[in-house]
Amino acid sequence: MKLSKSLLTLSCASALTLSSNITLASDSVPLKVMADALHIVLDSDRAIYTKKVVGRLVKKDKVIKASEHFIDDKSLPLPAQMFRMGSENVADRISSNPDINFSYSLQSLWPINSQNAPKTKAEKEGLKYIADNPGKNFYQKEKLGGTTYYTAIYPDIGVAPVCVSCHNKHKDSPKTDFKIGEVMGGVVIRIPVDG
Amino acid sequence: MMIITIIYFSNTLMNGEDKSVFMPGPMTDGHHQIGIACESCHENSFDDREQILKTCTNCHGDERKKPFDSHPKRKFTDPRNADRLEKIDALNCISCHVEHQPDITQKTGLTQPVDFCIHCHEDIADERPSHKDMEFNTCASAGCHNYHDNRALYTDFLIKHLDEPDHLKKALLPKREYSSILDEVATYPHAKYPIQSLTIEDSDKPEDITSTDTINQDWLLSGHAKSGANCTSCHMQHNDDTSAATWNNKPDHQACSSCHEPEVKHFKKGKHGMRLKVGLSPMTPAMSLLPMNKDHMDNELTCNTCHPAHKYDLQVAAVDTCLECHNDKHSLAYKNSKHFELWQTEQSGLTKEGSGVSCASCHMPRLNYDVSEWLSRVMVQHNQNATLVPNEKMIRPVCLQCHGLEFSIDSLADKKLIENNFVGTPSLHIQSMDLAKKDLQRELNKNNSDE
């Protein structure tokens, strides 16, 4: 029984891959594909943290708080901080691995900390584009500090009640009427390119 | 003549411990003790800028991470900050803390113009209207903002400590707990030295070593004998790379490391022990820039100086030992202070343990230290520099145990009050708490208007 089951699985898998020409890996990956793939992982990880950890324990079960000064408050890091700590960790690890190079951050037209407002031309254009065109991503090349980057900006949607309620209530938030499902900012991914 | 000069300089370069004749300029107060050992910063090359940055983190690495640093390196690695790095290279310590240039060095060791904050924060008046009329050379005023350590000054922290009285009702310093943690400490050599009280029959010194009655008596009464630390646990030392340990009559600070690792590590970071960290002879009062007692100029500073290993009297170590050497205005004024009064009443058993304030209470405080990610214990901070400059670093581990935050900020900003060792009350007022109150009001107003 067990042997036939695994044989069946194996034949289905090979049939699928052979028939639809899905390439599971290739020698070079287009920039857009790499950026899109990274974004899916970053977005999913943060969404899980926001819903399954913060949303559940803070909003639903009310057993712990989430706050900016989470070490002093003995509370949960905010989803944006979880995201940023990840990107800082990536920056540390990448410095010892020359084959992989990328960076990512969260930016917004309505940031709580004004340091996260769009700075470069691509960021300003991109954030406006994704806010005006729901469901679309923004891709552009830009030169910063002598290096050219492939910059991809993805809409950052408020997926959980805690996203919008916290931002709307925050004393430093310039926008106080976010709704669930609305674009709250953008994930900016940068990959350095030659030339 | 020429030949003599060449011989002199090359001899100093190769063999001399004091290479100060080669220094292009004097060092800052922080590093002058180790200035003669060029290789402690420069290692093998005077040209390698990248390598110099690494040596900073050898000693200062722990403080350059969150939450101790508001501007860690990670803040600046994103490419969007490339233009800012062109104005000021915030990735490298020496961009703002260069040595050997006394003309541009300020008291805190800063070698940039004091208003450098403007490079990234020029729009601050837009976000914080209260800052509209403040000049950029006042950002780092006492009680306002520190580039690195803002743990006692961030707005939410101020708000948490609003309306606190000058003296808290419950005013006690943390108690020791090392002995109770001993069971959990993974690095303690349990197999060889089980945690049990030792008797003179248990002492394991080699046959050919003679002890004295005093030594035996002292050791037996000490916490060392009571926790199973035998003669060989300190006196058998590995010299350099030899694998065999040999008996050492006068073990150095390395011997203490096997059980007191965090304390030794921090001792070597501060002004008492930093020479030991770079392999120089121990510090003596004669080498210090501060006023010291003439009679003790050549006392060498090691672990045993303040608390000898056989008989360590920690009450003596907390005040009297300090005052044996330190001879500055603040130290000389200590015995006139309320803090000393409290210390005396605690010592005579009239008040609770932890109610007195010794030199060590402020300058080597007991704090909750994260030994690892899963263990924290009360540790005495042996880096006496950790709470000194900027002095707001003293607020959380020390002042807040007994005093309100606003009172602490005001007191630490009053230089005269510090000099006379806090006899009296602060004569100035820092507006940090007032601004935090206004900010809280802004939040409440905002939430009220939404309803």
Explain the overall architecture:
The complex is a heterodimer of chains A (195) and B (451). Chain A is α+β, with helices and mostly antiparallel strands and 195 residues long. Chain A has one domain. Chain A has six helices and four strands. Chain A has a four-stranded antiparallel sheet, sandwiched between helices. In chain A, β2 and β3 form a beta hairpin. In chain A, α2 runs antiparallel to α4. Chain B has 22 helices and four strands. A two-stranded antiparallel ribbon of chain B has the order 1-2. A two-stranded antiparallel sheet of chain B has the order 3-4. In chain B, β1 and β2 form a beta hairpin. Classes of the chains: A alpha+beta (195), B mainly alpha (451). Chains A and B meet through α4 and β4 of A and α4 and α22 of B.
Summarize the structure.
The complex is a heterodimer of chains A (195) and B (451). With 195 residues, chain A is an alpha+beta fold. Chain A is 46% helix and 17% strand.
